[in-house]
Write a structure and sequence with these properties.
single chain; 485 residues; alpha/beta; Rossmann fold; GMP Synthetase, Chain A, domain 3; five-stranded mixed beta sheet; globular
Length: 485
Amino acid sequence: MLDEIACHEGVALSDGERSFTYRELAMAVEEISVQLRTSGAQTIGIAMDNSPLWGVLDLAILNARLVCVPLPGFFSPAQLFHVIQDAGIDTILTDRPGFFRELLGNGVGLVIDRRHLFGNYAEIRCPTASSKAPAGTAKITYTSGTTGNPKGVCLDTLSMEKVAQSLLEASCAGRGDRYLSVLPLATLLENIGALYVSLLAGATCYLLPLGQVGLDGAAKLDSAKMARAFEQFRASCAILTPQLLQALVALDKPLPDLRFLAVGGAPVSRRLLEMAVELGFPVFEGYGLSECASVVSLNTKDNRKIGSVGKPLSHVSLKFAEDGEVLVKGELMLGYCGMDIMNRNGYWPTGDTGYLDGEGFLHLTGRKKNIFITSFGRNVAPEWVERELTVHPAILQAAVFGEGKPWNVAVIVPRDPALVEDAVRQANETLPDYARIGKWLVSDTPFLPENGQLTTNGRLKRDAIWPLYRERIEALYEGEHCEVL
């Protein structure tokens, strides 16, 4: 990738105060690559806020043919400790050395303070670690999944580059683009879709600390600050989660410089996409998963159908199991950390159900294991109902249950409790009778990665949420009768 980056001219990375050219970037990557190779490091964790330095270090590790492990800032200390041990990280590059000294205790070896044109960082050695990645691994990206400890997805350089190239073609990215990085670079989607694609295109990528684009931790958002960042940098491209898109739509503020706003990471409500289009937002929903090196399908300017997650990218082929599960063949992971290399010539079972329509667009219907059957024998994908609930600005999050019951219950995290009743009523008007919400209750806390109720890519951990609310939900069914709102 470095050879392709080095041939571009102009500004590559910026933090809003200082810009770095492609020439400066290529020189920095080469310089730090040599430094890392001579240090004896093998498996290197990056633990820092979004910045041009994050991008430089990531590229330097790949260029040195070492293993890069992004360490998400939204992981709990226990999750981070697990990742360090599981991946066999021997070196951590961080802007939080005090935190990791405390976390690792006696496991910390040499600590070196590094000063560089792109920023300052500490290099922490963990000398007792040993790598557990399959041969050929260039990056281990951790996904918390729905239960248990985070799992390390091991990817090679070629797979990531092929996905980035497919996204480059699908989005028609070019040198005139200005990418605004809004999601943490430690997430694979942002790492590949924002950083790698923009650099391959010869565009400028703005890598600001997350607080400057309105994000604070895993769930706090200042939507006005985010909109101001879009305006200040005249962003033409960005990647958003559904929740971030909803926040922008709620502002009802045009962003005329945008030309490609990708939306993914979790299911998106059709109504939310339609509202965004009405406001003039160029929204394009996509779909992917870490095991397939990120994006699998994407709507584009020339091929867009709201309600679908687009057509498969050029490197992907799909088929479907008898139960509707989506099976993907393309750039697959080498395996999970600590496991043998998988058969990469086969199809990966995604756990998502869906279908291709007559025009070749992929439609998702839900998570295979989440579908429940009502007492009337109707199948309900809870994600579908939750999308319709959370499109209303009064509802931040919702978890829907109804296995074996005549009507469904929602556990709701409200933005405006006074308007939730009306929001549920509006959602029910868009749903068939068997999918509607009969009763609802207010959650004790938001669903967050920190409390184990949300994965790092925004999926609900239903197995963790259900026990907390089981008694109250079952109490709502006492007497059975309910007039659906």
